[in-house]
Write a structure and sequence with these properties.
By secondary structure, the protein is α+β, with helices and mostly antiparallel strands. The protein has helices spanning 8-24, 41-45, 51-60, 85-96, 114-129, 138-148, 152-177, 251-257, 288-294, 301-317, 417-433, 458-467, 478-487, 496-516, and strands at 34-36, 105-107, 194-199, 213-217, 232-237, 260-268, 273-281, 321-322, 331-332, 341-342, 349-350, 363-364, 379-384, 390-395, 525-529, 532-535, 539-540, 550-551. Residues 397-409 have a biased composition (Gly residues).
Protein backbone atom coordinates (compact mmCIF):
# COMPACT_ATOMS: atom_id res chain seq x y z
CA UNK A 1 0.00 0.00 0.00
CA UNK A 2 0.95 3.67 -0.16
CA UNK A 3 2.45 3.67 3.34
CA UNK A 4 5.64 1.94 2.24
CA UNK A 5 6.36 4.78 -0.21
CA UNK A 6 5.96 7.61 2.31
CA UNK A 7 8.32 8.99 4.92
CA UNK A 8 7.25 8.17 8.48
CA UNK A 9 5.54 11.46 9.30
CA UNK A 10 3.51 11.38 6.07
CA UNK A 11 2.58 7.74 6.69
CA UNK A 12 1.33 8.69 10.14
CA UNK A 13 -0.72 11.54 8.65
CA UNK A 14 -2.19 9.17 6.06
CA UNK A 15 -3.39 6.61 8.62
CA UNK A 16 -4.43 8.96 11.44
CA UNK A 17 -5.99 11.82 9.49
CA UNK A 18 -6.31 11.43 5.71
CA UNK A 19 -8.06 8.06 5.49
CA UNK A 20 -10.56 8.68 8.33
CA UNK A 21 -11.45 12.17 7.08
CA UNK A 22 -11.77 11.19 3.42
CA UNK A 23 -13.78 8.07 4.28
CA UNK A 24 -16.28 10.14 6.26
CA UNK A 25 -17.11 12.35 3.23
CA UNK A 26 -15.48 10.98 0.03
CA UNK A 27 -17.74 13.05 -2.24
CA UNK A 28 -16.06 16.24 -1.00
CA UNK A 29 -12.77 14.88 -2.36
CA UNK A 30 -14.19 13.67 -5.69
CA UNK A 31 -13.59 10.13 -4.41
CA UNK A 32 -17.15 8.95 -3.93
CA UNK A 33 -17.25 5.35 -5.10
CA UNK A 34 -13.57 4.87 -4.21
CA UNK A 35 -11.72 3.45 -1.23
CA UNK A 36 -8.06 3.37 -0.17
CA UNK A 37 -6.14 0.34 -1.42
CA UNK A 38 -5.95 -1.22 2.01
CA UNK A 39 -7.09 -0.06 5.41
CA UNK A 40 -7.00 -1.29 8.96
CA UNK A 41 -9.84 -1.55 11.41
CA UNK A 42 -8.37 1.36 13.36
CA UNK A 43 -8.41 3.60 10.28
CA UNK A 44 -12.01 2.73 9.49
CA UNK A 45 -13.23 3.32 13.03
CA UNK A 46 -11.33 6.54 13.75
CA UNK A 47 -13.59 9.60 13.66
CA UNK A 48 -13.15 13.35 14.07
CA UNK A 49 -15.85 15.92 14.68
CA UNK A 50 -14.78 18.05 11.73
CA UNK A 51 -11.50 19.07 10.12
CA UNK A 52 -10.69 21.80 12.65
CA UNK A 53 -10.81 19.21 15.45
CA UNK A 54 -8.56 16.93 13.41
CA UNK A 55 -6.14 19.82 12.94
CA UNK A 56 -6.06 20.42 16.70
CA UNK A 57 -5.02 16.79 17.16
CA UNK A 58 -2.43 17.19 14.41
CA UNK A 59 -0.92 20.20 16.20
CA UNK A 60 -0.04 17.93 19.12
CA UNK A 61 1.01 14.94 17.02
CA UNK A 62 4.74 15.47 16.49
CA UNK A 63 5.09 12.05 14.84
CA UNK A 64 2.91 13.27 11.96
CA UNK A 65 4.78 16.57 11.56
CA UNK A 66 7.87 17.62 9.67
CA UNK A 67 10.80 19.05 11.56
CA UNK A 68 9.98 22.67 12.33
CA UNK A 69 12.65 24.25 10.20
CA UNK A 70 12.29 25.17 6.49
CA UNK A 71 15.54 23.38 5.70
CA UNK A 72 13.83 20.06 6.43
CA UNK A 73 10.60 20.60 4.52
CA UNK A 74 9.71 17.23 3.01
CA UNK A 75 8.09 16.82 -0.37
CA UNK A 76 8.79 20.46 -1.06
CA UNK A 77 10.75 22.21 -3.75
CA UNK A 78 13.37 24.85 -3.05
CA UNK A 79 10.77 27.60 -3.36
CA UNK A 80 7.88 25.81 -1.68
CA UNK A 81 9.11 25.01 1.82
CA UNK A 82 7.05 24.16 4.89
CA UNK A 83 7.08 27.10 7.31
CA UNK A 84 4.58 26.57 10.16
CA UNK A 85 2.12 24.03 11.51
CA UNK A 86 -0.88 25.31 9.53
CA UNK A 87 1.21 25.30 6.37
CA UNK A 88 2.27 21.74 7.20
CA UNK A 89 -1.38 20.70 7.38
CA UNK A 90 -1.93 21.89 3.81
CA UNK A 91 1.35 20.43 2.62
CA UNK A 92 0.46 16.99 4.02
CA UNK A 93 -2.70 16.91 1.93
CA UNK A 94 -0.70 17.72 -1.22
CA UNK A 95 1.34 14.58 -0.57
CA UNK A 96 -1.78 12.43 -0.24
CA UNK A 97 -3.32 13.84 -3.43
CA UNK A 98 -0.17 13.99 -5.54
CA UNK A 99 -1.14 12.37 -8.83
CA UNK A 100 1.64 9.77 -8.54
CA UNK A 101 -0.11 8.48 -5.39
CA UNK A 102 -3.65 8.29 -6.74
CA UNK A 103 -3.27 4.64 -7.74
CA UNK A 104 -3.91 4.08 -4.03
CA UNK A 105 -7.63 4.80 -4.55
CA UNK A 106 -9.61 2.00 -6.19
CA UNK A 107 -13.29 1.68 -7.16
CA UNK A 108 -15.61 0.49 -4.43
CA UNK A 109 -17.84 -2.20 -5.94
CA UNK A 110 -20.89 -3.86 -4.48
CA UNK A 111 -20.04 -7.56 -4.71
CA UNK A 112 -22.86 -9.88 -5.62
CA UNK A 113 -20.88 -12.97 -4.64
CA UNK A 114 -17.65 -14.17 -3.07
CA UNK A 115 -16.02 -14.77 -6.47
CA UNK A 116 -16.32 -11.08 -7.44
CA UNK A 117 -14.85 -10.07 -4.11
CA UNK A 118 -11.87 -12.36 -4.66
CA UNK A 119 -11.34 -10.94 -8.15
CA UNK A 120 -11.16 -7.40 -6.79
CA UNK A 121 -8.72 -8.48 -4.10
CA UNK A 122 -6.53 -10.06 -6.78
CA UNK A 123 -6.64 -6.86 -8.83
CA UNK A 124 -5.63 -4.86 -5.75
CA UNK A 125 -2.70 -7.20 -5.17
CA UNK A 126 -1.56 -6.69 -8.77
CA UNK A 127 -1.62 -2.93 -8.25
CA UNK A 128 0.36 -3.32 -5.03
CA UNK A 129 3.01 -5.32 -6.85
CA UNK A 130 3.41 -2.69 -9.60
CA UNK A 131 1.79 0.44 -8.12
CA UNK A 132 3.27 3.12 -10.38
CA UNK A 133 2.41 1.63 -13.77
CA UNK A 134 0.19 3.79 -16.05
CA UNK A 135 -2.67 1.29 -15.89
CA UNK A 136 -2.96 1.60 -12.12
CA UNK A 137 -4.18 5.19 -12.30
CA UNK A 138 -6.78 4.51 -15.00
CA UNK A 139 -9.75 3.94 -12.64
CA UNK A 140 -9.26 7.37 -11.08
CA UNK A 141 -8.52 8.99 -14.46
CA UNK A 142 -11.65 7.48 -15.99
CA UNK A 143 -13.67 8.65 -13.00
CA UNK A 144 -12.67 12.32 -13.19
CA UNK A 145 -12.61 12.37 -17.01
CA UNK A 146 -16.21 11.20 -17.21
CA UNK A 147 -17.46 13.27 -14.29
CA UNK A 148 -15.95 16.52 -15.55
CA UNK A 149 -15.84 15.78 -19.30
CA UNK A 150 -12.11 16.49 -19.58
CA UNK A 151 -10.96 17.26 -23.11
CA UNK A 152 -9.18 14.23 -24.66
CA UNK A 153 -5.95 16.19 -25.23
CA UNK A 154 -5.90 17.30 -21.62
CA UNK A 155 -6.60 13.75 -20.45
CA UNK A 156 -3.53 12.64 -22.44
CA UNK A 157 -1.54 15.51 -20.97
CA UNK A 158 -2.49 14.42 -17.45
CA UNK A 159 -1.34 10.88 -18.26
CA UNK A 160 1.96 12.25 -19.56
CA UNK A 161 2.52 14.38 -16.47
CA UNK A 162 1.80 11.34 -14.29
CA UNK A 163 4.39 9.26 -16.13
CA UNK A 164 7.04 11.97 -15.89
CA UNK A 165 6.39 12.59 -12.19
CA UNK A 166 6.55 8.87 -11.41
CA UNK A 167 9.82 8.53 -13.32
CA UNK A 168 11.65 11.25 -11.43
CA UNK A 169 10.16 10.49 -8.01
CA UNK A 170 10.84 6.76 -8.21
CA UNK A 171 14.47 7.55 -8.99
CA UNK A 172 14.73 9.77 -5.91
CA UNK A 173 12.41 7.86 -3.57
CA UNK A 174 15.04 5.63 -1.86
CA UNK A 175 17.00 8.70 -0.80
CA UNK A 176 13.82 10.61 0.08
CA UNK A 177 12.67 7.87 2.44
CA UNK A 178 15.89 8.33 4.42
CA UNK A 179 15.44 12.10 4.52
CA UNK A 180 18.40 12.74 2.22
CA UNK A 181 16.38 14.02 -0.73
CA UNK A 182 13.11 15.75 -1.53
CA UNK A 183 10.28 14.52 -3.74
CA UNK A 184 8.11 16.74 -5.89
CA UNK A 185 4.38 16.63 -5.40
CA UNK A 186 1.78 17.62 -7.96
CA UNK A 187 -1.68 17.16 -6.44
CA UNK A 188 -4.90 17.20 -8.40
CA UNK A 189 -7.50 19.42 -6.73
CA UNK A 190 -11.21 18.93 -7.55
CA UNK A 191 -12.65 22.00 -9.34
CA UNK A 192 -15.26 22.51 -6.61
CA UNK A 193 -12.44 23.60 -4.30
CA UNK A 194 -12.07 26.91 -6.16
CA UNK A 195 -14.63 29.68 -5.77
CA UNK A 196 -14.92 33.40 -6.49
CA UNK A 197 -13.13 33.01 -9.81
CA UNK A 198 -12.09 36.28 -11.39
CA UNK A 199 -11.13 36.07 -15.09
CA UNK A 200 -7.81 37.68 -15.89
CA UNK A 201 -7.38 39.79 -19.01
CA UNK A 202 -4.28 40.20 -21.14
CA UNK A 203 -5.47 38.25 -24.14
CA UNK A 204 -6.57 34.86 -22.89
CA UNK A 205 -9.04 32.66 -24.71
CA UNK A 206 -9.95 35.36 -27.23
CA UNK A 207 -6.34 35.27 -28.51
CA UNK A 208 -6.19 31.48 -28.89
CA UNK A 209 -4.88 30.80 -25.38
CA UNK A 210 -6.49 29.19 -22.37
CA UNK A 211 -8.18 31.50 -19.88
CA UNK A 212 -6.69 32.22 -16.46
CA UNK A 213 -8.29 33.22 -13.16
CA UNK A 214 -7.68 34.41 -9.63
CA UNK A 215 -9.71 32.31 -7.19
CA UNK A 216 -10.17 31.41 -3.55
CA UNK A 217 -8.99 27.94 -2.52
CA UNK A 218 -11.56 26.21 -0.27
CA UNK A 219 -10.70 22.52 0.19
CA UNK A 220 -12.60 20.47 2.81
CA UNK A 221 -9.55 20.68 5.09
CA UNK A 222 -9.49 24.50 4.93
CA UNK A 223 -8.65 26.09 8.28
CA UNK A 224 -10.20 29.11 9.97
CA UNK A 225 -6.81 30.81 9.86
CA UNK A 226 -5.62 30.05 6.34
CA UNK A 227 -1.91 30.33 5.51
CA UNK A 228 -1.53 33.22 3.08
CA UNK A 229 -0.27 31.21 0.13
CA UNK A 230 -3.19 28.77 0.40
CA UNK A 231 -5.94 31.40 0.38
CA UNK A 232 -6.00 33.29 -2.93
CA UNK A 233 -4.45 31.40 -5.83
CA UNK A 234 -3.78 32.01 -9.51
CA UNK A 235 -5.23 29.50 -11.98
CA UNK A 236 -3.11 29.51 -15.14
CA UNK A 237 -4.80 27.90 -18.12
CA UNK A 238 -2.79 25.37 -20.13
CA UNK A 239 -2.97 25.74 -23.90
CA UNK A 240 -2.51 22.39 -25.62
CA UNK A 241 -2.02 22.63 -29.38
CA UNK A 242 0.59 19.99 -30.19
CA UNK A 243 0.99 17.10 -27.75
CA UNK A 244 3.93 15.75 -29.74
CA UNK A 245 6.04 18.80 -28.80
CA UNK A 246 4.39 20.59 -25.90
CA UNK A 247 5.07 19.84 -22.24
CA UNK A 248 7.96 17.43 -22.78
CA UNK A 249 9.25 18.67 -19.43
CA UNK A 250 10.39 16.78 -16.36
CA UNK A 251 8.28 18.15 -13.49
CA UNK A 252 11.26 18.41 -11.14
CA UNK A 253 12.87 21.00 -13.40
CA UNK A 254 10.03 23.39 -13.95
CA UNK A 255 9.00 23.01 -10.29
CA UNK A 256 12.37 24.52 -9.40
CA UNK A 257 11.65 27.44 -11.73
CA UNK A 258 7.91 28.01 -11.37
CA UNK A 259 6.27 27.54 -7.92
CA UNK A 260 3.29 25.27 -8.63
CA UNK A 261 0.74 24.20 -5.98
CA UNK A 262 -0.91 21.60 -8.20
CA UNK A 263 -3.43 20.99 -10.98
CA UNK A 264 -7.16 21.38 -11.32
CA UNK A 265 -9.63 21.75 -14.19
CA UNK A 266 -11.87 24.53 -15.44
CA UNK A 267 -15.12 23.86 -17.27
CA UNK A 268 -15.71 25.94 -20.40
CA UNK A 269 -19.44 26.12 -21.22
CA UNK A 270 -18.63 27.26 -24.77
CA UNK A 271 -17.03 23.92 -25.63
CA UNK A 272 -18.67 21.75 -22.96
CA UNK A 273 -15.21 20.46 -21.98
CA UNK A 274 -13.04 20.82 -18.90
CA UNK A 275 -9.40 21.81 -19.30
CA UNK A 276 -6.34 21.48 -17.10
CA UNK A 277 -5.06 24.56 -15.30
CA UNK A 278 -2.02 25.09 -13.11
CA UNK A 279 -2.66 26.18 -9.53
CA UNK A 280 -0.07 28.80 -8.59
CA UNK A 281 0.45 30.96 -5.57
CA UNK A 282 -1.02 34.43 -6.07
CA UNK A 283 2.01 36.65 -5.80
CA UNK A 284 1.55 39.01 -2.80
CA UNK A 285 3.73 41.64 -4.47
CA UNK A 286 1.98 41.30 -7.82
CA UNK A 287 3.71 41.01 -11.17
CA UNK A 288 6.73 42.88 -12.44
CA UNK A 289 4.41 44.77 -14.79
CA UNK A 290 2.40 46.10 -11.83
CA UNK A 291 5.65 47.02 -10.08
CA UNK A 292 6.81 48.98 -13.13
CA UNK A 293 3.58 50.96 -13.19
CA UNK A 294 3.33 51.90 -9.52
CA UNK A 295 6.91 52.40 -8.42
CA UNK A 296 9.46 55.06 -9.45
CA UNK A 297 13.04 54.32 -8.40
CA UNK A 298 15.49 56.99 -7.30
CA UNK A 299 18.58 54.78 -7.67
CA UNK A 300 19.64 51.57 -9.42
CA UNK A 301 19.37 49.28 -6.38
CA UNK A 302 15.88 47.83 -6.95
CA UNK A 303 16.14 47.70 -10.76
CA UNK A 304 19.49 45.94 -10.38
CA UNK A 305 18.14 43.46 -7.80
CA UNK A 306 15.14 42.65 -9.98
CA UNK A 307 17.31 42.32 -13.08
CA UNK A 308 19.64 39.91 -11.25
CA UNK A 309 16.71 37.88 -9.94
CA UNK A 310 14.97 37.54 -13.31
CA UNK A 311 18.21 36.84 -15.16
CA UNK A 312 19.13 34.12 -12.68
CA UNK A 313 15.78 32.39 -13.27
CA UNK A 314 16.36 32.53 -17.02
CA UNK A 315 19.98 31.41 -16.61
CA UNK A 316 18.94 28.38 -14.55
CA UNK A 317 16.14 27.52 -16.96
CA UNK A 318 18.44 27.69 -19.98
CA UNK A 319 20.46 24.71 -18.81
CA UNK A 320 17.64 22.57 -20.20
CA UNK A 321 14.78 24.71 -21.51
CA UNK A 322 13.72 27.81 -23.41
CA UNK A 323 10.85 29.77 -21.84
CA UNK A 324 9.50 31.32 -25.03
CA UNK A 325 7.26 33.95 -23.42
CA UNK A 326 9.32 36.10 -21.05
CA UNK A 327 7.58 39.38 -20.23
CA UNK A 328 6.72 41.38 -17.08
CA UNK A 329 3.25 39.85 -16.58
CA UNK A 330 4.91 36.43 -16.48
CA UNK A 331 7.33 37.51 -13.76
CA UNK A 332 5.69 37.22 -10.35
CA UNK A 333 6.99 38.80 -7.15
CA UNK A 334 6.36 36.24 -4.40
CA UNK A 335 8.81 36.97 -1.61
CA UNK A 336 9.70 40.64 -2.09
CA UNK A 337 9.36 43.37 -4.68
CA UNK A 338 12.94 42.68 -5.76
CA UNK A 339 12.69 38.90 -6.33
CA UNK A 340 10.99 37.71 -9.51
CA UNK A 341 9.85 34.18 -10.43
CA UNK A 342 8.98 33.05 -13.94
CA UNK A 343 5.45 31.85 -14.62
CA UNK A 344 3.75 30.16 -17.58
CA UNK A 345 4.92 27.03 -19.40
CA UNK A 346 2.78 27.49 -22.54
CA UNK A 347 5.69 27.93 -24.96
CA UNK A 348 8.41 26.29 -22.89
CA UNK A 349 10.44 23.62 -24.66
CA UNK A 350 13.76 21.83 -24.52
CA UNK A 351 16.87 23.84 -25.31
CA UNK A 352 18.00 21.48 -28.07
CA UNK A 353 17.80 22.05 -31.81
CA UNK A 354 15.97 18.78 -32.51
CA UNK A 355 13.13 19.76 -30.18
CA UNK A 356 12.54 23.32 -31.44
CA UNK A 357 9.37 24.41 -33.15
CA UNK A 358 10.22 25.01 -36.80
CA UNK A 359 8.46 28.36 -36.82
CA UNK A 360 7.64 30.16 -33.58
CA UNK A 361 5.22 33.06 -34.00
CA UNK A 362 3.51 33.03 -30.63
CA UNK A 363 4.02 35.07 -27.49
CA UNK A 364 3.47 38.66 -26.45
CA UNK A 365 4.55 41.52 -28.68
CA UNK A 366 6.85 43.52 -28.44
CA UNK A 367 8.85 40.86 -26.56
CA UNK A 368 8.95 38.63 -29.67
CA UNK A 369 12.45 38.54 -31.13
CA UNK A 370 12.91 39.89 -34.69
CA UNK A 371 14.29 36.62 -36.10
CA UNK A 372 10.79 35.16 -36.09
CA UNK A 373 9.94 37.32 -39.11
CA UNK A 374 12.25 35.57 -41.54
CA UNK A 375 14.92 32.93 -41.81
CA UNK A 376 17.10 35.26 -43.85
CA UNK A 377 17.84 38.86 -42.89
CA UNK A 378 15.49 41.54 -41.66
CA UNK A 379 15.08 44.44 -44.00
CA UNK A 380 14.47 47.56 -41.95
CA UNK A 381 12.10 49.80 -43.88
CA UNK A 382 11.58 53.39 -42.94
CA UNK A 383 8.20 54.96 -42.54
CA UNK A 384 7.22 58.48 -41.60
CA UNK A 385 4.93 58.87 -38.66
CA UNK A 386 2.29 61.55 -38.55
CA UNK A 387 4.69 63.99 -36.87
CA UNK A 388 7.31 63.56 -39.55
CA UNK A 389 9.74 61.58 -37.38
CA UNK A 390 11.35 58.41 -38.65
CA UNK A 391 10.77 54.96 -37.26
CA UNK A 392 11.45 51.38 -38.22
CA UNK A 393 9.41 48.27 -38.74
CA UNK A 394 10.40 44.74 -39.61
CA UNK A 395 9.53 43.75 -43.14
CA UNK A 396 9.81 40.14 -44.23
CA UNK A 397 9.92 38.75 -47.71
CA UNK A 398 7.46 36.16 -48.99
CA UNK A 399 3.84 36.01 -49.86
CA UNK A 400 2.67 38.25 -47.04
CA UNK A 401 0.17 35.65 -45.88
CA UNK A 402 -1.00 36.82 -42.47
CA UNK A 403 -1.34 33.26 -41.24
CA UNK A 404 2.40 33.04 -40.89
CA UNK A 405 2.79 30.15 -43.31
CA UNK A 406 1.86 28.95 -46.69
CA UNK A 407 3.65 28.17 -49.90
CA UNK A 408 6.31 30.65 -50.90
CA UNK A 409 6.59 32.41 -47.54
CA UNK A 410 9.84 32.38 -45.63
CA UNK A 411 9.06 30.95 -42.24
CA UNK A 412 10.34 32.28 -38.95
CA UNK A 413 13.40 31.01 -37.11
CA UNK A 414 13.19 28.25 -34.48
CA UNK A 415 12.74 29.23 -30.85
CA UNK A 416 16.07 29.35 -29.00
CA UNK A 417 17.38 30.77 -25.75
CA UNK A 418 18.43 33.91 -27.66
CA UNK A 419 14.73 34.82 -27.94
CA UNK A 420 14.47 34.92 -24.15
CA UNK A 421 17.51 37.22 -24.07
CA UNK A 422 15.85 39.64 -26.50
CA UNK A 423 12.80 39.80 -24.21
CA UNK A 424 15.13 40.30 -21.25
CA UNK A 425 16.70 43.27 -23.06
CA UNK A 426 13.31 44.99 -23.29
CA UNK A 427 12.69 44.26 -19.60
CA UNK A 428 16.06 45.79 -18.69
CA UNK A 429 14.99 48.92 -20.57
CA UNK A 430 11.63 48.92 -18.75
CA UNK A 431 13.25 48.57 -15.32
CA UNK A 432 14.69 52.06 -15.81
CA UNK A 433 12.15 53.71 -18.14
CA UNK A 434 9.11 52.26 -16.23
CA UNK A 435 7.13 52.13 -19.50
CA UNK A 436 4.66 49.25 -19.91
CA UNK A 437 2.81 48.13 -23.02
CA UNK A 438 -1.01 48.07 -22.76
CA UNK A 439 -3.29 45.18 -23.71
CA UNK A 440 -6.27 47.53 -24.11
CA UNK A 441 -5.00 49.87 -26.82
CA UNK A 442 -3.39 49.60 -30.25
CA UNK A 443 0.20 50.57 -29.63
CA UNK A 444 1.42 53.65 -31.47
CA UNK A 445 5.12 52.99 -32.24
CA UNK A 446 5.94 56.63 -31.59
CA UNK A 447 4.29 56.82 -28.17
CA UNK A 448 5.66 53.44 -27.05
CA UNK A 449 9.10 53.70 -28.66
CA UNK A 450 11.98 51.83 -27.03
CA UNK A 451 14.88 54.25 -27.22
CA UNK A 452 18.09 55.12 -25.38
CA UNK A 453 17.34 56.81 -22.04
CA UNK A 454 19.18 60.12 -21.51
CA UNK A 455 21.47 59.99 -18.50
CA UNK A 456 21.27 56.20 -18.02
CA UNK A 457 24.34 54.39 -16.71
CA UNK A 458 26.53 53.35 -19.64
CA UNK A 459 26.91 49.76 -18.42
CA UNK A 460 23.14 49.38 -18.28
CA UNK A 461 22.58 50.85 -21.74
CA UNK A 462 25.32 48.66 -23.24
CA UNK A 463 23.65 45.59 -21.77
CA UNK A 464 20.26 46.59 -23.22
CA UNK A 465 21.84 47.17 -26.63
CA UNK A 466 23.58 43.80 -26.66
CA UNK A 467 20.43 41.91 -25.65
CA UNK A 468 18.44 43.64 -28.41
CA UNK A 469 20.84 42.72 -31.21
CA UNK A 470 18.99 41.84 -34.41
CA UNK A 471 21.26 38.84 -34.99
CA UNK A 472 20.46 36.28 -32.26
CA UNK A 473 24.01 34.95 -32.48
CA UNK A 474 25.34 38.32 -31.28
CA UNK A 475 23.26 38.40 -28.10
CA UNK A 476 24.96 37.40 -24.84
CA UNK A 477 23.77 34.31 -23.01
CA UNK A 478 21.97 34.59 -19.68
CA UNK A 479 25.10 33.72 -17.70
CA UNK A 480 27.01 36.58 -19.31
CA UNK A 481 24.14 39.00 -18.67
CA UNK A 482 24.07 37.93 -15.03
CA UNK A 483 27.82 38.43 -14.56
CA UNK A 484 27.65 41.88 -16.18
CA UNK A 485 24.75 42.86 -13.92
CA UNK A 486 26.75 41.76 -10.88
CA UNK A 487 29.50 44.19 -11.84
CA UNK A 488 27.13 47.16 -11.95
CA UNK A 489 27.89 49.15 -8.78
CA UNK A 490 25.34 49.42 -5.98
CA UNK A 491 23.90 52.54 -4.35
CA UNK A 492 24.14 54.67 -7.49
CA UNK A 493 21.47 57.35 -7.78
CA UNK A 494 19.57 57.83 -11.01
CA UNK A 495 20.67 60.82 -13.03
CA UNK A 496 18.04 63.64 -12.80
CA UNK A 497 17.62 63.33 -16.56
CA UNK A 498 16.46 59.73 -16.07
CA UNK A 499 13.89 60.79 -13.46
CA UNK A 500 12.63 63.50 -15.79
CA UNK A 501 12.45 60.98 -18.65
CA UNK A 502 10.35 58.57 -16.55
CA UNK A 503 7.81 61.26 -15.65
CA UNK A 504 7.66 62.63 -19.18
CA UNK A 505 7.12 59.24 -20.81
CA UNK A 506 4.48 58.26 -18.26
CA UNK A 507 2.53 61.43 -18.98
CA UNK A 508 2.81 60.78 -22.69
CA UNK A 509 1.37 57.27 -22.42
CA UNK A 510 -1.30 58.40 -19.96
CA UNK A 511 -2.63 61.01 -22.39
CA UNK A 512 -2.53 58.50 -25.24
CA UNK A 513 -4.60 55.93 -23.32
CA UNK A 514 -7.26 58.49 -22.44
CA UNK A 515 -8.31 58.63 -26.10
CA UNK A 516 -7.29 55.23 -27.50
CA UNK A 517 -8.51 52.52 -25.14
CA UNK A 518 -10.26 49.60 -26.84
CA UNK A 519 -13.69 48.41 -25.87
CA UNK A 520 -14.22 44.71 -25.19
CA UNK A 521 -15.85 44.27 -28.59
CA UNK A 522 -12.98 45.82 -30.56
CA UNK A 523 -10.20 43.65 -32.04
CA UNK A 524 -6.75 43.83 -30.49
CA UNK A 525 -5.01 44.44 -33.80
CA UNK A 526 -5.78 46.44 -36.95
CA UNK A 527 -4.20 47.22 -40.31
CA UNK A 528 -3.28 50.91 -40.37
CA UNK A 529 -1.94 50.94 -43.93
CA UNK A 530 -1.21 48.39 -46.62
CA UNK A 531 1.94 47.01 -44.98
CA UNK A 532 1.65 47.83 -41.30
CA UNK A 533 -0.40 46.37 -38.45
CA UNK A 534 -0.82 47.91 -35.03
CA UNK A 535 -1.60 45.62 -32.14
CA UNK A 536 -2.26 45.63 -28.42
CA UNK A 537 0.35 43.94 -26.23
CA UNK A 538 -1.36 40.59 -25.67
CA UNK A 539 -0.06 37.04 -25.69
CA UNK A 540 -1.23 35.01 -28.67
CA UNK A 541 -0.67 31.43 -29.73
CA UNK A 542 -0.01 32.77 -33.24
CA UNK A 543 0.61 36.43 -34.07
CA UNK A 544 -0.98 36.74 -37.49
CA UNK A 545 0.69 39.36 -39.64
CA UNK A 546 3.74 39.45 -37.38
CA UNK A 547 5.83 40.53 -40.36
CA UNK A 548 3.94 43.84 -40.47
CA UNK A 549 4.09 44.68 -36.75
CA UNK A 550 6.08 47.88 -36.13
CA UNK A 551 9.46 47.66 -34.47
CA UNK A 552 9.42 49.74 -31.29
CA UNK A 553 13.21 49.55 -30.85
CA UNK A 554 14.63 52.81 -32.20
CA UNK A 555 18.06 54.46 -32.24
CA UNK A 556 19.86 51.57 -30.52
CA UNK A 557 22.81 50.17 -32.46
CA UNK A 558 21.39 46.65 -32.72
CA UNK A 559 22.72 45.58 -36.14
Amino acid sequence: MLLQYLILSDAKFYTEYAVPLISSSPERFDLDGFRPMSTTKEMREKRYDGFEIAFQHFQQDTDAQYEMHPRFGRYASKMDLVWDIADQWYQKWTVIFSIDHLWNWVPLHQHENEEQQQQQQQQSQQVLQRPFQPATIEPWLNHISQRHNIHPNHRKLLERIYGQLVKINQTNRPLALTGASVLNTLPFFPPSWFIEKEPQGHGGASEGLAASFVARFVPPYRLTHVPERWDRVFLKGLTVMDLTRQFMLEPNYFFSTIPIHGLTIHFDPKTDYSYLVLVLKKAPYGSLEENLERYTPTNYDKPRALALSVTKRIKDLHWEFVHGNVHPRNILLHFADTIGDLADITFMQRNSQSEHYCCHRGGRWPYIAPEFCTTNHIQQAQYQDEKGEGGEHYHCGGSGDNNGGGEGQQQGAPLTSAADIYALGIILWQLVSRITFPDNALIDPLVYRIEPIPGIMKEWEDLITDCLKTDPGKRPNAYTVYRRLEKIPERVDLDPRVIDYIHRRRQETKFFLQDHQLSESQPTFAEVDKDQIWTASVTRWVNHGLDEYPNLVQHFNVL
